[in-house]
């Protein structure tokens, strides 16, 4: 059970994948709630936020998957911008940017992560960020099609599905966290 042990190094990819899967699943839960009959408006509003926080937490600790630092930074920034997209109505009075534009910026950040990963030939990070980027594109597309200020319930479903698939790929991929190197001195 030393620092170079493969089971220890495998724990981090499983943790990141689990956070992405949990975040996507939590975002899909509000689609199963009849919030009008149950008066569960707060739960339906807050659950996607919890999901975005889980995806953001997974992306923050996913630095080992995204070996180019720029790929990891843009992937994490994209997850953060999606969180801002969800929370946009809470601070819209102070920062008058429509939530959809935060989502567009988050999608662009995920796409930049794909480009950087492909440029460095990092297949796992390109696939993970690419799947989340596809979910982001579909969510933004649905938002623009809905033509509403307040997004319908199903807007986050493609993003959540992308997070679920990206999490499964992260868990199933052969990537390992880097081994800790002990100082010989």
Automatic annotation (TrEMBL):
Q: What does the UniProt keyword field contain?
A: Membrane, Transmembrane, Transmembrane helix
Annotated TM spans:
12-33, 39-65, 72-94, 100-120, 127-149, 155-172
| Top-level taxonomic group | Bacteria
Q: What is this protein called?
A: Uncharacterized protein
Native species of this protein? Microbacterium pygmaeum
